[in-house]
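DoxX family protein
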Amino acid sequence: MTSTRTWPSLAALLLRVLITALFVIAAGMKFAAVPFEVAVFARFGYPLWFMYVVGAAQLYGAVLLWVRGGTAFGALLLMVIMVGAAVSHLRAGDPVALALPALVLLILLAGLAYRHRDDVTLSLRWIAAQRA
């Protein structure tokens, strides 16, 4: 039996696994109220409840990466979170180096969303068909 997977599809799968692991761990740290996370959100001027909202959104986005037809939506949600993280770092006066991980993840997520862009068009077609 021969495999039909190509190197680009295997690389995309590995990228999705790594991104998922990263965001599940990050969400877990927020739900556990790890002192580092609490301190960062306080330094940014955000209320503590917002940390839990971000953690829930990270977890939801990570799950969507594995839902058929939801990969692009999960990547887009996580992209919004990464934009917020980068802007928060820069607004707080942090060096650009602290915003760099969020910016790198933003680029990787954009590639993942582009690779699964058909998820969005199919969903829009389904919505249009339901309205007709």
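thats it. DSSP finds six helices and no strands in the chain. The chain has one domain: 13-131. bye
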